[in-house]
Amino acid sequence: MTEITSTTILLILIMDPLGNLPVFMTILKNLNAKRQRIVVIREMIIALIIMLLFLFVGEKILSVLSLKTETVSISGGIILFLIAIKMIFPTENSNGVSSNEEPFLVPLAIPLVAGPSLLATLMLLSHQYLHHMSYLVGSLLIAWCFTIIVLLLSGFFLKLFGSKGVNALERLMGLILIMLATQMFLDGIRDWFRA
Predict the structure, then answer these.
(1) Residue 106, φ and ψ in degrees, nearest 5
(2) Is 37 in a helix, a strand, or coil?
(3) What is the mean pLDDT of residues 165-171?
(4) Residue among 99, 118, 121 at smallest CA distance from 109
(5) Which family does it belong to (predicted)?
(6) What is the pTM of this model?
């Protein structure tokens, strides 16, 4: 149960629904509220399919590349650390979609929700918990449901916290992610020395 909880929290932090709120709202601002909900649900379903694909094929990819668990754990920790740094110290980024066109697949499903960091993490988790795939699927579905709820209630969250509050929450999530990334890195080094 503890593993499911920690994995779910990790996946939510990487999906970063609160951090993605302003981007989603900016990209979808020219659509009416009903169409916004349809686009969010469609993009989240596409992202879920991609994430499940990487979760189940990830182990095979690692074995084809002859990667050890320790190597993947160390590199995963480094990647998560860099993501967390960007969450704490955000930079201006363009979303790559003109305001008049409806997004499809890019950039909402990929890379905002199912980004490289999340897909790499799913590959790592599928390698670590090879015999507990049901736990991983459960964690992924919980994290996905949480993310889609936050995104569907974007207007409510922005009114509740305000843009400064959302930014502060994203930085807090970044700090937690730094701790998780450091732990993953240290676990990888410990396992490497034991091997």
Answers:
(1) -110, 135
(2) helix
(3) 82
(4) 118
(5) Belongs to the UPF0056 (MarC) family.
(6) 0.79
